[in-house]
Amino acid sequence: MRIANLAGRLVLVEGERALDVETASAGAFGADPAAVFDRWAEFTAWADAVDVATAEGTAAFASADLGAPSPRPRQVIGVGLNYADHAAEAGLPIPEHPVVFTKFASSIAGPDISVRLPGDTVDWEAELVVVIGRGGRSIPIAEAWERIAGFTVGQDLSERTVQWQGTPAQFSMGKSFEGFAPIGPAIVSVDELADPDRLAVSTTIIGADGTETRVQDGSTAQLIFPVAELVSRLSETVELLPGDVIFTGTPPGVGAGMKPNRYLVAGETLVTEIEGLGRITQRLTA
After folding, report:
1. 141: Cα separation from own chain's centroid
2. Cβ contact 221:189 at 8 Å
């Protein structure tokens, strides 16, 4: 199952066609993409019986009309240094426990957007994003997959100067500018993936002249704290709520780890892709 936010309406997606959920369910489920998570078990039971390819009312759609598939998460949780090679490029030890921060929810954005650069040290971080379906506290690792609505693609954009200013550092502020948490294009249920613990992750920067540079090329198999363990360990402290999103960390290849440092500039386009989930695109402006 793949669900998306098409012009503010909840849809099921297959390929380049979408089915409006409110219409197809005869009003059993509403159009609001954020509301569906509170009825997740009931919704998935209905959606699993729907064949989007043959259902009446499917229609082609434009990717530019897609919004964030979880548009109003109550919690946006970030996990830092969750790939050993990324910790090494940052000059930091491999963490013994998940390094957790937040991106404020107002930074959530759709998958195909323009992002204004608030400074000259904006960095990229491609990330697998977990969307919570049925949350809770103290979730055992063995039950974690049952609590996940699915995966989506995310970019943890970071203004490094703001992130590291002051003592202590301002992680959440540097990562929460407008458009700094783009996610999408859809939420893909775990059963759609051959191996949900082993997904290729990449970031490509396209210059104003069309030159393409692959800057990140990793796999979620390299996660220090895999998805199920993260969900379980986070829930020991935080009550995970339906629709919450968890940015699970980025593989090596970020601009701050390059010598010399490389940061995003106006006119460039950022393309992030995760195997089986799709891609998201951000156009950078001054």
Report:
1. 21
2. no
- Reported as a single tens digit per residue, the pLDDT across 223-248 is 999 999 999 999 999 999 999 999 99
HEC assignment per residue over 56-107: CCCEECCHHHEECCCCCCCCEEEEECCEHHHHHHCCCCCCCCCEEEECCHHH
Give the domain ranges of the chain.
2-61, 68-285
Number of Cβ atoms within 10 Å of the Cβ of 165? 12
> How many residues are given for the chain?
286
Q: Both tokens of residue 3?
A: 């669900």
Tell me the β-bridge partners of 122. 159
pTM for the full predicted model? 0.97
3-state secondary structure of 147: helix
Nearest to 189 by CA among 112, 141, 128, 130: 130
How far CA 146 is from CA of 31, 34, 79, 128, 185, in Å, comes to 24, 19, 21, 18, 22
Q: What is the pLDDT of residue 171?
A: 87
CATH class of the structural domain 68-285: alpha beta
Q: Which tokens sit at 284?
A: 């950078």
Please choose, from the candidates 86, 40, 78, the residue with its C-alpha nearest in 3D space to the C-alpha of residue 224: 86
Q: Please, are residues 125 and 158 in contact by the beta-carbon 8 Å criterion?
A: yes
Name 181's Cβ contacts closer than 8 Å, sequence gap at least 6: 76, 103, 107, 108, 109, 154, 155, 156, 157, 175, 245, 247
Indicate the SS3 state at residue 13: strand
